[in-house]
Structure formats: C-alpha cells, structure tokens
Amino acid sequence: MENFHAPWISFVLLAFVPFLSKNPFVAFCHNTPHHETDRPRTYIIQLETPTASLDEENLKIWYKSFLPESNDNSERLLHSYSEVFSGFAAKLTEEEVKNMAKKEGFLRAHPDRVLPLHTTHTPDFLGLKVGHGLWQASGLGEGVIIGVLDSGITPTHPSFDDDGVPPPPAKWKGSCTLKTGCNNKLIGAKSLVAGEAAKPPVDVNGHGTHTSSTAAGNFVGNASAFGLARGTAAGTAPHAHLAIYKVCNDEGCAESAVVAGFDAAVNDGVDVISMSLGGVPTRFDQDPVSIAAFRASVEKGVLVSCSAGNDGPSTLTVSNVAPWVLTVAATTMDRSLRATVEVGDGRKINAESMDQPPNFPKGPVPLFITDTSYDFHNCYTVSEKVKGKVAVCLADDLICTGKAATVKAAGGVGMILVNLDEEGYTMVDRKCNFPTASVPFNDGNPIITYVNSTSNATATISFGGTVLGVTPAPAVAHFSSRGPAPDCYSIIKPDVSGPGVNILAAWIDGRTANDTFAINSGTSMAAPHLSGVAALVKSLHPDWSAAAIKSAIMTTSDDKDRRGRFIQDQKRGSASFYAMGAGHVDPSKAVDPGLVYDLDIDDYIAYICGKYGDAGAKAIVRGRSIKCETVKNLTEAQLNYPTITLTPRNVTHTVSRTVTNVGPTNSSYKVKVNVPDTVFVTVEPQILEFTKVNEKKSFTVSAKWKGRPIYSVEGKLRWVSDKHIVRSPIVISDPQI
Domain named PA: which ranges (predicted)? Predict the structure, then answer.
C-alpha cells in the first residue's frame, strides 16, 4: 500500500516522560543522574495561547517572562514560535524548568530530541537513518574527503554549512579560493577551467551544486522544489568533506580541465573522486581521462565514481568504462509527485506532475489533440479548438515549457504529456509552468486512441502532492546508458546502479528567494550517490583499496526490488546486468561484504599488457619500465573483477577468480550457481574455507553450451556463508552471433 504524504499536512510527534512534581505536565527523564540536573539543555516550552493577540515584540517579552532572571536571557532564548506552536525553545536546567512550571500559562516542557528524518528521500530509500546503522557507525562519513569534478559550487547554500562537521584530516593539502563559504564542510574549491584560474569556482548552471550536495550535502530541513518532495535534504555522506574542482563552464567540460581536476584532487589528498561527465569511450591508452583515473585509483588509492551516461535505452552506449572506475547506472526510487488522470472511458491512471495548482477544475474537462500529421501530437502548434480544454501531447523531450506556452496562449487549461515508447514507465519530472500530468507510454497511448475516437472526450485531473511507497522501485531509467562497452566487452558495464530519477538536491541561487533546491534526473545524479556510499565504506575501512571498496559495493548490491522481484527496466521487463550493473546499491551491506575481489597494480599491468602491449602499458602506467613479454598477460575475462563474462563458443571457457576474506576469521563459503538450462556452469572448488582475515582463495568458473550457442544468457554465482552472501553476475555469450 502506498503512503500518501499530502504537501499541506505535517505533524510532529511530541513525547515526554512526566516528572514527579506538582505539575504533571513537566516533561523530564526522571532517571537523569543528579550531577546532570544543573547542566543546561534545550527544551521546547509549550505555553497556553495568550487570550489577547500579541505582536512579535510583545510575544517575545511574554516568553522571556518565563525565563529565570539573569543577564543572558537573550542568549538562552533560541526560538520564538508564533504561527504553529505557542511557546519557545531555550537552554534551561531541570531545576529552572521545575520553577517555570509553577507560573501561570505554562503547559509542558519537552526535552529537545533528534527525531527520525523524513528525507527527500534517497538516504531513507537507501536505508540510511540518523542515529542508526551505517550512518551512526561511519559518523556520517566524517574524515573522508570527496573531490567533485563538475561545474563548481554555490558556496552560500545551506547544504554546504559545516554544522557538526569536524576539521579536515591532517593529510589535506588543498586550498579554498572562494571569497566566502569555505568551512569544515567545503574545505577546497578551485577552478581548473582555462582562463578562469583566478576566479572563484562559483556554479552558474546548477549541475555541480546538485551533484556535490547529493554526495555529501549537510542536513537542511524543510527542503522542497516548488513546495513538493518536502523534507530534510541530506547527501549520502552528510559529514564528509567536499573539495570542489570546477572543470566545466557553459561551453562544456574540456578534457584538459578534467585531467587537471584529477591532478589537483590527488595532490590535495581526496579519498573519493565524483565525476558526472563523460564522452564517447575510446581506447584506455588513448584516453587522458582514463589514464588520469588509473593513476588516481590504482596508484593513489582514490575511488573514482563516474556516471554511465544518458544515452539509453540503446545498447553499446555506456561511458566511463575503464575497469578501474566505478560506472554508475540510474534507477528510480519509490517517490512520486502524484497526479491522477481519470479518463472519460473509465480508466484511472497514476501520473506525475511538478505543476500542481490548487484551483484546477475539479470535474471532467474536455480533451484536445492536434489533428495534423506534421505535428503528430507534439503540440508545437495548436489551433483555437484547444480553448478551455486539456491538450494531449507527446513528451518528446525534457523541456516542456514551450509546449505549455503554446497551449496556454491558444486558451488551453492544461496538458497531459504522454511518454514516448522508448521512455516506457520511467517518469521524469518536468516543470512546465502550466497544469500538467505526465503519464507512461502504455497508459498514455490509449488516451490518444480514446481522444481520436470520440468528439467529446474528457478527463478529470487531480493532484495529490508527494506519495511514498510507489512500486516497482528501484527500476532502471530509460535514459541510463547500457552496455556492453565496445572496448571492454568481457567486463560487464555499468558496474552498479543508484538513485538517479527525480532527485532533489541543492541548486544555484536566483530562481526564487525560498526555493534553492531542484529536482533533476540523470546518471549525473546517480554517480554522486555512489561517491557518498564509497565515502561511508572508506570511513570504516580506511585501509581498503579502491578495488576492494568497489567490489564490496557491487557484490552486496540488490538484484531484486523492494517487493522481492527482479529489478525491472523501463518496459517492466527484467533489467539486464548491462542495464543495472551488478544491482542496486545497498550501503549497509557494502561495509560488511565478507569477501572482496581485490586488484593491485600488477594485476592491472597484466591486463593492460594483454590488451594493449608495451605501448599501452607505457601510456597508462607511470614510473615503471614495463616489458609485457616478462609479464603473464591476462585476457579481459581473466581480470579479477567482481562480475564474470564467459564466451564458450564451441569449447569450454574457464576463468579464475581470487577472493580475499574481510569477514570473520574462521568462515566457510559454499557456492551456489543459477544459470539458464541452455548452459553448463561448474565452479571448482565448491567450498572455500578461511582461517584468517585477508586470506586469499582462488576458484575457477567454467561454462559450456548444452546445445547450439545463443547470443547471451545471464545468471549469478553466490558464495554463501552463515553471515554473508557474495553475489557475482554471470554473462555467457557468443559475440559472433
């Protein structure tokens, strides 16, 4: 059942323990140690509503009359409430509250508490909660530095305040060139854009501000976009430090600037690099960004989290595919900005809307659709017949304000935007500045048929605010780029998926005075979620390599959604590993994976030699004289990666893997393999026994077709112990078919 959260309703749970005194409404914890009773703490003091109306100044005078007589009353009074609560918040001792309770007008004293957050909403969707689990264990990412390569930062945004954030670790060597805003949260900021080195790296398009706050934004209460998705905004690692490297401007992201960003970030001492940009993949030994990422990740131990690209759902479109970076796909979450379309033929359709006017007509409204073959329902041009009607239009891009303006100018009262076939059920929120309901293709196409079949088609559109608990979730977004990667076919890319659809995060100043958050979609939004997760893992395992952290994230990810069904794609079919990667990230499991598939520089050298030879090794690996003839070259399939690709063709294909025990000292794992009936898969040995931490064990995986080879099948290999499940996707294919 869906949880409905109307935007006009909010509530606070007020709990108290009655103190044994003359006034039973004084709220204390009665087992407080005696030496604590004189220590001031924050209380919310609830008073009777004044019988006479008081202005702000007199109300504050009345509130202060309840405080003990002292010279520091102004400092004690923290908040004066007037609209939704009668009373104030102040720093008081228990004895002072007991004395206050004797005064006329006093009702209750509520000790200030940290309440469970109603987040906006990805941390909660990822299982991250204040005071519990991974957030508590990791100190919210304290001490870890995330370097963001993007379009800069909005330093005055409250997401980058440093409340609760300690100073950066001693290893930090960077600097902050901002004129204002540098603090314990925002510890570094510089521009690497050509000709802008002397300028502060202020964000002018919002992208860098959004991604930075998604990774490590601090807690900001009452955040929303146009009044929707309201809650407490927070990044995945709210108390991690941020170092900003501006590598993009309005003209794009020059590769030279991106490489300079890597260079500066590694020199400054970051632990994680978050990069939500990328181009068409090319050979790694000819790609400066891939080379820079190799040196950051493999040589310096910095995990590099990259967006997979937004060119889906076509295959062979994934970007940032080097095996030493974490490539992140985008998925949906269980929140909807709900609209409902009740069509005149009796169907009721769940829709999405960022434009929810309170005064939209409550009953049926006539529907209109363009009738010219040239326009093909795109609503770029409409006739006067739309006056007083709702136009049904195809949503052929993310920018709908042009269509809306056209319909509005012709007298229309609203729009129903129908997803394109390729978009399917992926509902990307669009701000149209006009009453609009967006519907999935499978629901919207029948609306078009209905309108074309009758002259008096109608629909009733209602708006329901923010809804949580929507299913299926997560699901792979239509735009998320798919693998396989042309230059590394035998490695499954993307690696993992994370929330990337309708993500609310910080935005640049200037839209409205009270609306500094925005909802955006893209793998650009997914990658910083994983950057934050990597920071949380790093905070608990500072000695783990980037490859180990990456393995932990991948092997503990979920291949099933919140209902326990296999994760779906935009068409409601099962998502392939080339769409979602190993699965959807599960941060709490990632810190305790049991086993990891680790890689060191020698492993990568063997892989690079096998792929590119001496020239490639020289280009990618720095500071070593490498002769590939002296190295045991690895094929791509043999690289010790957490996913497995086999191409048996007409013979058995065997690969080996090595896992490292990072779980209990004494542990035993038994293998379980699930593959289709069209293929034989065997694993040797079938049991792995460990007697110490960091012990390594190797195994082989072999595959052979039972009959005639087919293009591709998918399965999974799991090492199962009493406490852990270490899952690796398997793809068995014949690329020549």
Answer: 381-446
